[in-house]
Amino acid sequence: MLLKHVFPFTANSHRNLPKLAPPKLPLQTDGKLHLDVFQYDMNYPSLGQCVVINNKNFHKKTGMGVRNGTEKDEGNVEETFSNLGFKIKICNDQTVSQMRDLLTRVSKEDHSKSSMFACVLLSHGEDGRIFGTDDCIELKELSALFRGDRCRSLVGKPKLFFIQVS
Question: What is the model's pTM?
Fold first, then answer.
């Protein structure tokens, strides 16, 4: 299962982590606890962009079959993220190169007026990789395009990646 490789934690893996002192909670002069420092600032003109890559048909050399029913998933994703207020961009049947180029372009856009960024990948996948229509690519390579050193206008903002693979 893909998530096992993306999040290689087990139920007890937290026991091996070093013990840290609890964070000091922010108190105002009124003596009340204010948790707003633990929240993202959502006060931007736009919620942000949601890029959906939906790969249904694959080149024979990949050995991957057609992903029947993926149009329904795409429709549900589009409706949900639209209703939330995202600007939706849908790209179907993308090669690895097209996926990389698309997300590179999006990562270089100005997101300074957006609260966050979302990306939904619908495809085949295995072992931390996702398939374009012609080959596979490491998920880390795609998500790394949105790191703070590569996408300055999303620093300090949520970058959400939803991966559905079969």
Answer: 0.79
